[in-house]
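Researcher: Please predict.
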Amino acid sequence: MFTKAFWKATGERSVRTFAQVLVGSLGLDTLGIINANWNEGLALGAGAAVLAVLTAVATSGGTEGPGITETVRYRR
């Protein structure tokens, strides 16, 4: 958890999660399944990104990556 590679992978994961939730919420709005405007979509995405970071930190014990079974390859 205290490596640059860990935080780089965690940042990438949180950005992906943010984008997935934003696109998903706006797509569901377009289909009429939920009613979410841009502000709500951004808030949902931000919340999901925070949860992704917290999950990475909580599951970081023992591995080099941000997940339970992940490892981060170090480039030399």
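Model: The chain is about 65% helix and 0% strand.
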